[in-house]
Amino acid sequence: MTNHYQGVEEFSLQDETWCGVTATFSAAKRILMLSQAGLVVRFSVKTSGCTGYAYVIEQLDNPQADDVRFESNGCVFYVVLSALPIFDGTEIDFVRQGLNQSFIYRNPNVKTECGCGESFGI
User: How far apart are CA 91 and CA 64, in angstroms?
Assistant: First the structure.
């Protein structure tokens, strides 16, 4: 497996003890809405910003071969396998504040965050 994320070593699902990834009830409702019409919701990260990574959410027709399936609060979503060391233990929430709405990631692996909140480091 090729690793796409700097600072994260090669791994396999069988060689590690995983905490998993969960979605709150609010996030599950949003994921279910995004999954309408047969689409799947996929979470990953990309290198970005001043501290290293930014979260990415995609809607795809089908999961990819390297996606890991999670079920939480009645919804199904996927995390890119190579991003799992970064996501492991994360609780995904969905919040609305006034006219703004977004997914919030409670990630125990995050060590630093940039001042604008757009990127994080592990």
Answer: 22
pTM above 0.85, yes or no: no
Dist. CA 27–CA 18, nearest whole Å: 21
Quickly tell me which residue has 């279910």 as its tokens: 32
DSSP per-residue letters across 43-99: EEEEEETTTEEEEEEEEESS--TTEEEEEETTEEEEEEGGGHHHHTT-EEEEEEETT
Distance CA 78, CA 57 (A): 10
Closest CA to 82 of 102, 65, 94: 65
Mean per-residue pLDDT of the chain? 85
Sign of CA dihedral 36, 32, 116, 53: negative
Cα separation of 38 and 76, whole Å? 12
